[in-house]
């Protein structure tokens, strides 16, 4: 089988019901097929657009459903236990309970996306990590060591150049918000990556016949969804969200996994929130995404992400995008019928 054959091979999404080894069914989800790029894992003979739309709807349902349920529960805890009225519950306070509920609800997209992929496509949820079906610690380590300092410097400069409103903070709130941000904010960022650069990217890419068409469809659909969920009506902010969506998708494709985009996303959200605490900024005004709040300064992260993406592309120019490894003899035998 040639490399091109792998790119157009059936996805075997119904592998759990296919016959292998003299009529016996192989139970459980299948691993990703060998030799395919990250975004083509769910591609098959049929486009299965209806199934894909259902998958995308379920991702959004999880994002807003978990947020609504956990947000309501947090509002009741704030009200009845601490006597506070947080924003989600119709009040005006930004509380640690509210922040914890928000980041945890988005982090739940990690297992939720895996469950959707397994249920609708019969593919192991772990394949969302990378083409090796695991988080590659070496890649995470390099990204943290190189990109975290770069992002911290950029956000410090960005904060210094951006207007902000100061508000009064209780010391206890600052301490709790600091701890919650350090522990859970990276998981919140990872949740968005699994939902949009992971599942949504793959689902939309499965609608394209060829690898290039698939890549374009995957990037466009996942980026539009990513921008829409942020609910901004400001032109500059939407340029920013679209740039992040496109570049993070390209990085995921070239590296064959979510590790690098998770590190950048986590660095962005975590450092930005910590800077807000340091500056005693008002999180309500800082979260305003209405028309007119953005400015040309948002081109700074767009240019930075374009440079990072170009560097990653250059470093992978000889190898090309990472692919799933070839199956060994024992794994291949699981799919091949026995000789009669």
From TrEMBL:
Bilayer-crossing residues are 53-77, 97-121, 142-162, 212-229, 235-253, 292-314
- Tell whether Disulfide bond is among the UniProt keywords: no
Q: What name does the UniProt record give this protein? A: CPBP family intramembrane metalloprotease
Keyword Disulfide bond among record annotations: no
Domain (CAAX prenyl protease 2/Lysostaphin resistance protein A-like): give its ranges. 174-271
Q: Name one GO molecular function term.
A: metallopeptidase activity
- Kindly give the InterPro entries that the UniProt entry links to this protein: CAAX_protease, Rce1/LyrA-like_dom
What UniProt keywords apply to this chain's record, in alphabetical order?
Hydrolase, Membrane, Metalloprotease, Protease, Transmembrane, Transmembrane helix
């Amino acid at each position: 089988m040639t490399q091109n054959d792998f790119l157009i091979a059936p996805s075997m999404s119904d592998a759990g019901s296919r016959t292998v080894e003299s009529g016996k069914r192989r139970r459980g989800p299948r691993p990703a097929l060998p030799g395919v790029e990250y975004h083509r894992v769910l591609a098959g003979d049929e486009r299965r657009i209806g199934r894909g739309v259902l998958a995308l709807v379920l991702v959004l349902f999880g994002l807003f459903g978990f947020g609504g349920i956990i947000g309501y529960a947090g509002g009741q805890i704030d009200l009845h236990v601490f006597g506070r009225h947080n924003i989600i519950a119709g009040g005006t306070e930004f509380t640690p309970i509210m922040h914890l509920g928000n980041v945890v609800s988005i982090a739940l997209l990690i297992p939720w996306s895996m469950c959707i992929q397994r249920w609708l496509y019969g593919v192991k949820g772990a394949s969302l990590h990378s083409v090796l079906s695991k988080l590659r610690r070496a890649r995470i380590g390099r990204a943290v060591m190189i990109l975290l300092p770069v992002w911290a410097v950029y956000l410090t400069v960005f904060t210094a150049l951006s207007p902000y409103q100061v508000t009064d903070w209780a010391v206890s709130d600052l301490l709790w918000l600091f701890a919650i941000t350090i522990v859970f904010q990276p998981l919140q960022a990872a949740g968005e990556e699994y939902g949009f650069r992971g599942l949504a990217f793959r689902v939309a890419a499965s609608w394209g016949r060829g690898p290039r068409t698939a890549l374009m469809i995957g990037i466009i659909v996942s980026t539009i969804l990513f921008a829409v969920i942020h609910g901004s009506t400001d032109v500059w902010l939407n340029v920013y969200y679209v740039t992040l969506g496109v570049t993070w998708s390209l990085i995921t494709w070239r590296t064959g996994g979510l590790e690098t985009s998770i590190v950048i996303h986590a660095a962005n959200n975590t450092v930005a929130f910590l800077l807000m605490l340091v500056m005693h900024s008002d999180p309500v005004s800082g979260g305003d995404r209405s028309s007119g709040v953005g400015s040309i300064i948002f081109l700074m992260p767009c240019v930075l992400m374009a440079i990072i993406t170009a560097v990653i592309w250059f470093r992978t120019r000889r190898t090309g995008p990472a692919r799933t490894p070839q199956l060994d003899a024992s794994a291949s035998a699981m799919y091949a019928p026995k000789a009669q």
